Amino acid sequence: MDGDGGGVVHYSNYLRFMEIGRIDMLDDHGIDLYELKSKGYFFAITKLDINYMVAAKPGDTIEIATSVTRLKRASIDFRQRMSRDDQLLVEAYITMVLLKDNRPTKLPDVLNKLPLLSQTGQLSA
Known about the structure:
The chain is an alpha+beta fold and 125 residues long. It has 3 helices and 6 strands, in the order ααβββββαβ. Strands 1, 2, 3, 4, 5 and 6 form a 6-stranded antiparallel sheet that branches. A hairpin with a 3-residue loop joins strand 2 (61-71) and strand 3 (75-84). The longest helix has 16 residues, at 13-28.
């Protein structure tokens, strides 16, 4: 269950929802995170700035808009907005660094060519 004792979605679940949004956006651009993992790459969040505005309730359908806002040598900046019926619930700015052998590493071409655009998807809370 995604709800807490107050009958709303627990704040920590929004992080999980945002991860689903990022994975879906990358997948839609032909980037297979499992393939990257098999080559020894993985992402780590190095910065998270999140603003909670309105709580979602368990069972709500939430739309997640994921944008790549900046590509750097070894990191990707994302902006994610979660809404319900056009009402903004949460907005977050996330920086993820690509690691290999536990060290920051240059983004491979497949990631470095990500367009700076929005991708929107839905899930149920």
